[in-house]
Write a structure and sequence with these properties.
This protein is 69% helix and 0% strand. The chain contains one helix and no strands. The chain has one helix at 2-30. The chain starts with a helix and ends in a 12-residue tail after the last helix.
Amino acid sequence: MTSLFGILGLLLIPLAGAALGYRQARAARALPPARTSGLPPA
């Protein structure tokens, strides 16, 4: 039973990371380009 959890963990953790990274990339693309640098406007 524990090996099943290990296999599920190995599959689910990268999938969750990919989903979160995809959401982060979409959110970053939705912002105006000036906001993505993280620096205050000069």
